[in-house]
């Protein structure tokens, strides 16, 4: 059907503002809920992949067998040169499949943090639309090395690798460009237990307060990025 497949790992981490962009552009897509349905046998007839986030780690394949299926399908997508977008866990899966290490970070990065662009970003069709000074939303504890032959595009103070590109049409975002204020609030509610163990350096109420002031800027950033990013599916 020449559709874009969106891989979801948990019910509460969906495509967010990606969905609106896909529909605006008239792009066919299908959400694949890997937590309750089988992964496709192959990518025949697939136009590209969007791989969302999730609370699991890429190395937890025993607990989450669908991660093995994703590894296989990402390999297929890379070998065929299919367009691909990975967010958070999706970015980590792309890094792992491309041969890079994915490891635990020194501490979790949850909330609003400055994003720093690399020199290479100024020449990238997507990242050159991002201002030099911008804060983005993060929710992760793992990090990745940059795969061989990939281009590093962004970093943060805590995690030096925040984004990369493989070839011309495979983009990995550690940060969450797709979130809305409602999504962030739902994550804070759902992950109350996790946040309770991080009170020494993460204040969930502060995150909510900052979201009110910063979500509009992220929304504008996302729209600018999407204008270029979704051209990979053309």
Describe this structure in words.
With 234 residues, the protein is α/β, with parallel strands linked by helices. The chain has a single domain, classed as Class I glutamine amidotransferase (GATase) domain (Rossmann fold, 3-Layer(aba) Sandwich), CATH 3.40.50.880. The chain is built from 6 helices and 9 strands. It has a 9-stranded mixed beta sheet with strand order 2-1-3-4-9-8-7-5-6. Helix 2 packs across helix 3 and helix 4 crosses helix 6. The longest helix has 26 residues. The two termini are 15 Å apart. 40% of the residues are buried.
Concise synopsis of the structure shown:
The chain has a single domain, classed as Rossmann fold. It contains 6 helices and 9 strands, in the order βαββαβαβββββααα.
Order of helices and strands: EHEEHEHEEEEEHHH
Strand % is 25-35%
Mean pLDDT score, rounded? 97
Query: What's the architecture, going by CATH?
Result: 3-Layer(aba) Sandwich
Helix content: 25-40%
Count of DSSP-assigned helices: 6
Largest beta sheet, briefly? 9 strands, mixed
Main sheet: which strands, in order across?
Answer: 2-1-3-4-9-8-7-5-6
Decide which structural class fits the backbone. Answer: alpha/beta
Count of extended strands: 9
CATH topology: Rossmann fold
Overall number of structural domains:
1
Rg calculated over all Cα atoms: 17 Å
CATH class (first level) name: Alpha Beta
